[in-house]
Amino acid sequence: MARLADYFVVVGYDLDKRGGSEGQGHILQRFPEKDWEDNPFPQGIELFCQPNGWQLVPERERPSFFVSVLTDINSERHYCACFTFWEGLDNLKLPKAEASEVDEDEVPGLVQPAQVFAPKSLVLVSRLDHTEVFRNCLGLIYAVHVDSLSVPLETVIGNLLTCVIPVAGGSQRTITLGAGDRQVIQTPINDSLPVSGSSVAHLFRQLGIVNVLYLFCAALTEHKILFLSSSYQRLTDACRALLAIMFPLKYSFTYVPILPGKLLEVLSTPTPFIIGVNSFFRSETQELLDVIIADLDGGTVTIPECVHISLLPDPLLQQTQTALSMVLDPELEMADHAFPPSSTQPSTLKIQDKEIRAVFLWLFGQLFNGYRWCLHIIRIHPEPVIRFHKAAFLGQRALTEDDFLMKVLDGMAFAGFISERGPPYRPTDLFDDLIANQVERIRQEECSPHKVMNHIKELAEQLFKNENPYPAVAMHKVQRPAESPGHNDPKNLAMFPLLDDVTVQLFIDHAAAKLQTAPPVVKAELKGMVPSGPPLGDIVDRHGHVLANSARRLEVVRNCITYIFDNKMLEAKKLMPAVLRALKGRAARVCLTQELNQHVLQNRAVLDDQQFDYIVRMMNCTLQDCSHMDEHGIAAILLPLVTAFCRKLGAGITQFAYSCVQEHMVWTNMQFWEAMFYSDVQNHIRALYLEADGGEQSIDSRGQQESGPAAGGQELLGALELASEQSRLWPTLSKEQQSERVQKEESTVFSQAIHYANRMSYLLLPLDTSKNRLLNRSGIGDVESVSNSYVTNSIAGSMAESYDTESGFEDAESSDVANSVVRFINRFVDKVCNESGVTNEHLKALHTMIPDIVQMHIETLDAVHRESKRLPPIQKPKLLRPILLAGEELVMDGMRVHLISDGREEATGALGGPPLLPAEGAIFLTTYRLIFKGTPNDPLVGEQVVTRSFPIASLTKEKRISVSLSMDQFIQEGLQLRSCTFQLLKIAFDEEVASDLAEVFRKHMHKLRYPQHVQGTFAFTVGQSGKTLVEHKTKDKNQSIKTLSKNLVKSAKRTIGRQYVTRKKYSPPTWENRSSLQSELDEDELSVSEELDQGSLTLSSTIRSSDRQTMSNVVERACCRDYQRLGLGTLSNSLTRSKNEPFRISTVNRMYTVCRSYPGLLIVPQSIPDSTIQRISRCYRQNRFPVVCWRNSRTKAVLLRSAGLHAKGVVGFFKSPNATSAGPSQADSTSLEQEKYMQAIISSMPSYCEPSGRNTLGGFTSTHMSTSDSSDKLRQPKIGALMKQVMGGKEDVPGTFSRGALGQRARVISLSQPRVSGKARNPPGGKWGSIRGSGRLSAYNPEVGNRLSSKESPQPNGGPSEALFLRQQRAYLYIIGDKTQLKGGKQDSFQQWEVVPIEVCDVRQVKNSFKKLIKACVPSSATSEPSMTFHRCLEESEWMCLLHRVLQVSVLVVELLDTGSSVMVSLEDGWDVTTQVVSLVQLLSDPYYRTFDGFRLLVEKEWLSFGHRFSHRGAQTLASQSSGFTPVFLQFLDCVHQIHLQFPMEFEFSQYYLKFLAYHYVSNRFRTFLLDSDYERIELGVLYEEKGERKNPQVCKSVWDYIDRLNKKTPIFFNYMFSPEDEEVLRPYSFISNLKVWDFYTEETLSEGPSYDWELVQRGRQERLAEEVPDKPDTTTPKSQRRIVWPCYDSRSRVVPDAITKLLQDLQSLEAELGLPPEKWKDTWDKIKANQRAEAKLENRPSFNSSLLMSSNLSHQRRSQGVYLPESGVGSSINLAMDRETSTTSTPVAGRPSTSTLYSQFQSTESENRSFEGILFKKGALLKPWKPRWFVLDKTKHQLRYYETRQDKECKGVIELAEVESVIPGTPTMGAPKNIEEKAFFDLKTTKRVYNFCAQDSPNAQLWMDSIQSCLSDA
């Protein structure tokens, strides 16, 4: 029974304490005056009566009612029902202060009200929650007062305070307060179920299902929740509803349904809460960052970004949502039915409320089912102590990873749940019943929503019954006040009177006396045994599938164990790898433990060494895969076993298995030990009582509880049942019996504690006690591991003292193992003994015992350790030595390591084949490489050798990792080494490698990777002894060159030296501190010549003799050879200044004074003097001014390169020449000189000089649109479109293509051109690729594209567009510049150059992209995330986009050059992107660069001489380490590879050649790619030494020499498909879809390592062959000729070579057998080609361009490309081809060039007119050479036409047969083709001239003569 109301309080407005802007309330009266003993008066009630603050109002408001909840210090809840009404106050009564306050607020001119109203509250405080009853009672009191009823208020209040009602039991109680009223109070049947009325249903109506589920999960996982509403009662209801759905968990944090405004700072408390606040304070809640705000009125739930709510695990969440929607919206299911039932209304609110609660009850039933099987009962008497085994619970349900459940189980609410529901003997409720009896039903029904609904309806009925056990009785009769009196009449309402407290007190005393005399109410508490429900069944994983672990695997495990114990070691060894793989599955692990259990006899199993070793390995493997939650299962079962298995080491010394399985984190986990301890204690206590009851069952020493609850299910009597029985009997026992039981239990716990102290010391003390592996690694004593179990009896005090003293940090100070172990065990003992009530004496005894136990154990271990050292070690594979290059030396000898598999799947056997990795072997560090060599761990491939290596110079990232190998128990330290040759070494050091040795290894590696100076790299140190990296002072044979280069550098320094005078004395840097001077030598920030005094600029015109020598050397350099080839001038004519050449070679930079990073000799316009050059150079970054690097031999357009302009130069650069300025400023004069320079370049172009003026270039005079011009018409808009795509288009620019028309995606703009007659201004067609707009480049000058695409552009001012001719010409010079650089330039319409602004990729972009590319191609670990697949990572790296951009710009430049405009590439510093673009342009435009010599020359000229910073970008030295690795050159090689793929017949070198360069440009094996410029190379004396004699013939210093030598020996670099076309210009596609990932990035050969160090691979193969030879004598078994080729192991190109290589190899071996001197492969190949040609001529079957493809009928890939058209709707290119053929050749349709060549099956329309055709050599006009042409004799048209090639459509010339006079045999003239007999020549005489012809041989010549003769005679 309980009081209905504890206190009645009247609270009013406090007129005296009117301080600030807000009033205060104060308690006017309270009854009873003194506190109840059992229930003190709650503080602060006045705040809660007016949560928004106490305020006076001008108008009377209606009375209000709400219930707030206060929680006292014992977390008891008090319900305060507040009834508030308003009483009038006369203004006269207000004190002055009040009046003045009011005045301030009022608006002038308003009349102040004569009366204001103050609030008054009647408050009823109770511990029961009967909202309606409180409302009625307070309403009644108000009614009595207002209506002045005859009943005295004191009586009513006295009755109210003395009313006593039952708390629960379902009874009804009628009460009356003595004012003619009557109420029925209904109590719930069961007190433990919450009463919710219809509040839950309302909450769902207000917020919706998903929102409430969010709040529900947030409350359970301890987040802060805030409700907002403008209604107080709704806040209370919502909070009540949230608590109701949490049942059976109880909320134990701050709970304030209505929070007064004055206490808002409570919201920033760090602890979780559920609080309601009036919407009035919404603004104050805005800045709360971690609070979930639910707005009841608006129906929203706002979750801040930083809050992550864990939701219910997956199937459950879905099921719950479905069930809730079926309850709240039953019509949803029927909504789609054709015949919906007449009505499916949702239940009434009250019923719906219970249905919703039933859904949550059902949900908890699923979440917590089986929880009682994870309870450990550790004491029964004097009261039960119970622990929950969280790990077991989660492990059994396979939910160890589930975030939500973890948090719930760790939460306070669940701790309360366990302490309340844990005891086995107590009253039970609906939830207990659900868990015990309905789990099976829930499991079966969970898939069918309707059955679930039926179940929920049943539960809802029980919940409803609990609140409303009887039908409602209408016996309420409550007085309500009459219609409230007129508000306007102030006198109408009297003030609430002061009550007479004596009268009320009398009532209360009277009632108290009565209670004392009354007999006590005896309530029979129905206690009973709590049923446990069915045990947790099979492990069900998240998707409801029972985890299948195939029986086959378990069979393997069983067999292996049987073999081990039967001593069949070989069999066991074979099975071992399979067993270790199988043990990844949990079932196999359990199976292993069960099998091992059977081999233990009397707690002991003695094994021999090998058995012991295998068993230990299996145990380690089992433990290693345990997740930290799952260990309860496996580690727990293994714990008794590790102390059972042992081996004899010597006299009386036994080693147990535990000394070998210590390396697992499980053993350092305090929670694991607690759980184990409690589980054992429970078994012993159970045994204690079973024996006492007659020993029905002997104790099972291995404790069934450990083998999982399932085993517990078969026991006769579970521990909980036993405990329940004992608790029931407890009151019946005598005092002696009781204390005896308590004492027995206590000593049981005590003995277990001793046992565990021993066990822990076994597993925590390492075998070698000098190493403290385990404890140091995990801060073992950290408090976080305190509890996995819940503490029910308060142990806070005792815990505090044991924890504060040792917080786990002391381990670090005293690393003494013994101490840390003792401390760990002490902590454990303190905790468990306190929890399980061990007496203090016993605890002290334990503390004294533990150090002795540990000490004893250490002594035993020492002996064991000593003996185990003597055991013969297990045989490890012997370390294999790597083969070294000549001059390569070992820095560190091999250290035994394991190579671990990374994210690449091939080697691990994931894609088929046995796993080659992990492998065991050694890592070697040499002066050049890092090499791993070893053998796979898998015995099936144990004979193979695995090699992985990369050059030390290519190491990009090194990171320490710790690795646990499945075979070994130890977690080793390891390294992960990444190389930019796309290799990754993940190695774990073997335990025999001391950790300091590993450290030495790292240091050496760093030293070699980042030497102090370039001279420390392998290319320089090779051949010296590795110990001394300093230069030897030997007499130098190559003296002259050395002095020469020294002189050169000296004189350069003399000149440069002056610039440093102002800063500091310049001294030539020594090698040691060279790096510090780097800024001065490498990075000329603005430019070197910035501060030179004028005197140094006037170089003497006579070159000194020492310089002459230099010059002769420089002339030999690549640049000069190329300049001469291109006809850009020779050194002699530049010295004698012959004026007829437009360009000259300038020696202005011969001392490297103008630009340090340029070569000594440069091509500049003839008209520009050197002095101008020096001035111009200042405008460019790094002084890299524009110089010519290539000239198109046909159009004579030139390609220039330079750096971007300095910012100051840009504006000046575009100023119009006639700009008025006060005086010629410095900037102006420079920009004028720049203009002059540009003009000089433009003037050099022949097209500029033609008399007919600028229009010739455009060829756009539409009136004379001749046949030959038609191709130009085709090309014209194309370049404009190209240009726009490169620059990007803006939709809003008038007169440009819109983006759509451009076709961002798939439009391909160009096709191959018909050939045009060879006049200079009409370019021949070429191979076309295409360009796609990159879409990111937006703003640019629209005129540029327009001028190119001949679109008119309206004037910006709206005037008429300019005269058409101005827009129609093409500019003579295009400057490709960086967009960011070219802002603010004004474009002059008469200028002859035009700027094309493009976006270039920054070096940083390349660097980051490369990092991502490496990670994509060589991932460090396998990933199953779909977002991390190879292609996704490749896309994210954006590498392909960068290639696309470079290729796109290059194709544009090629196109411009080909149409006769010159191009200047002027990007960034002129040494990265510029170099890439310029090199690619030359490669695409000039076939020479696609040969071996040409490509070498291209790289030497553009990359080496023009100063690409190889050392800096490759981070080759310590100084450049920070800048990181940026593979600009690799990007260029990748672009070349893409072009090679598209045009395989145009390159003399193979793809392997490109890979070879890509590998060696970072390997530092050769000196070629070291240093940043020619200047640095000369300074080091590297540049010319290659010409001197070689000291060491094996050591090639130049990669080119090496390639030449190798190329002579083997065709590895040669491309057999090489068959170039003359003057072929390539135009590759640059779409990303056309680009392929280079296999250089992904391929590897584990059998021999990278194949780019050819000698190593060759020697390795010879060794392998030598090994295989001795097997010969064994002829008994026939040897199979078949070989298995493994991906990633074998080198496919060697095992399966291409046919030609194979034939050449066979030839060589045949020659060797015959004893002939072997012929060079190249000679053989050339001979064969020559023979083939001869045969072809005999058959008169012309071969492709007079060269031959060996492969039978490979048509030329992409000779010319058919593509679908830019705008036309023609479907396929085949139709196109046919269209094209039917139209006549002479007038090609604009925009549809020929594709016929792709389709040889379509006969040309002219074929019927071709009577005779073939190749003839024709002598050109005067002084022109002989050229092969394709001649066609046409009888019909009576003419002899000739074409450039057979494919050509455009005829190059016609000889009319009508004009022919005679055909006679001729004689060879000068320059005729060689090796052709005399009789093959014949002459054709016409009226105009004599044509000289030459056929392939004499019969052919005769045929031609006859045919022509017959044509003439026919006519």
Description:
The chain is of the alpha+beta class and 1915 residues long. Helices cover 39% and strands 13% of the residues. It contains 64 helices and 42 strands. A seven-stranded antiparallel beta sheet has the order 25-24-23-22-28-27-26, covered by helices on one side. Helix 5 packs across helix 10, helix 18 (551-565) packs parallel to helix 20 (586-598) and helix 30 runs antiparallel to helix 31 (840-870). The longest helix has 31 residues, at 840-870.
Q: What profile does the largest beta sheet have?
A: 7 strands, antiparallel
What does the radius of gyration come to?
A: 48 Å
3D shape: elongated
What proportion strand? 5-15%
Low-confidence stretches: 95-111, 485-491, 538-548, 695-716, 773-815, 1026-1045, 1051-1109, 1209-1225, 1251-1277, 1289-1368, 1586-1591, 1671-1676, ...
Widest sheet, order of strands: 25-24-23-22-28-27-26
Q: What kind of assembly state do the chains in view correspond to?
A: single chain
Helix content: 25-40%
Q: Compute the separation of the termini in Å.
A: 138 Å
What is the β-strand count?
Answer: 42
Averaged pLDDT: 74
Task: Please name the defining characteristics of this protein.
1915 residues; 7-stranded antiparallel beta sheet; 64 helices; 42 strands; 13% strand; alpha+beta
Quick overview of this protein structure:
The protein is α+β, with helices and mostly antiparallel strands. Strands 25-24-23-22-28-27-26 form a seven-stranded antiparallel β-sheet, with helices on one face. The protein has a seven-stranded antiparallel β-sheet with strand order 39-38-37-36-42-41-40, covered by helices on one side.
